[in-house]
Amino acid sequence: MGKNKIRRFEENKTLVNVFQPTREEALSGYEMKGKWRTDFFKNDNPIVLELGCGKGEYSVGMAKAFPDKNFIGVDIKGARFWFGAKEAVEKNLSNVAFLRTQIELIDLFFEKDEVDEIWITFPDPQIKFKRAKHRMTHPEFLDRYKKIVKKDGYIHLKTDSEFLHGYTLGILQALGYDVEVSHHDIYGAPEFETDAVHLREIKTYYEGLFSAKGKTITYLRFKI
């Protein structure tokens, strides 16, 4: 492990907006479950998750744009989201936190209806058939999200993978879920979602790379 990665891991332990529970803590009843608003955010604002947040730039960008919402970036790689957590502390952003865990355990950290929205940003599409259950919009993952997100809460998928976009559409339609928006190129259609400029103005690290190379970015918004 490189020295910089070790340094980030150690600094994460000191950042007030970083939570790194053990698997045992999650399985035995995590202390923050049901208490994110009261014990950390200190408000009653909506909670929005970003799953697979990487360096955390999307969560931080959304926190800046929407101070009336609370954001939690979730990723297993703490050395990556250190960047976002560090920036949030330096800029006194009190409406964003980071949770280090596997997405497979997400329903162990939030109570029923505790989450208002979920963003899934540029996940690995897991194209090989034998990896299908690892796709973050696989029915088993959707079942986990359904346990924590409000009934009328949105789930958003942003991806450069037409495969994952199409796969997710098929799954949602097969399960009878409500797809409100489906778009194959959010940057190629100026009229798209004019009331949601943040879809284009706030980008993840990979989104910036992909769009600079001319790759199309797709978007889904749905309820489960």
Automatic annotation (TrEMBL):
It holds the Pfam family Methyltransf_4. S-adenosyl-L-methionine binds at E50, D75, D124. GO terms for cellular component: tRNA methyltransferase complex. Keywords: Methyltransferase, S-adenosyl-L-methionine, Transferase, tRNA processing. It comes from the Bacteria. Its EC number is 2.1.1.33. Substrate binds at K128, D160, T204, Y205, Y206, E207. It catalyses: guanosine(46) in tRNA + S-adenosyl-L-methionine = N(7)-methylguanosine(46) in tRNA + S-adenosyl-L-homocysteine. One of its GO terms (molecular function) is tRNA (guanine(46)-N7)-methyltransferase activity. PANTHER family: 3-DEOXY-D-MANNO-OCTULOSONIC-ACID TRANSFERASE/TRNA GUANINE-N 7 - -METHYLTRANSFERASE (PTHR23417), PENTACOTRIPEPTIDE-REPEAT REGION OF PRORP DOMAIN-CONTAINING PROTEIN (PTHR23417:SF14). Belongs to the class I-like SAM-binding methyltransferase superfamily. TrmB family. Catalyzes the formation of N(7)-methylguanine at position 46 (m7G46) in tRNA. HAMAP family: tRNA_methyltr_TrmB (MF_01057). This is tRNA (guanine-N(7)-)-methyltransferase.
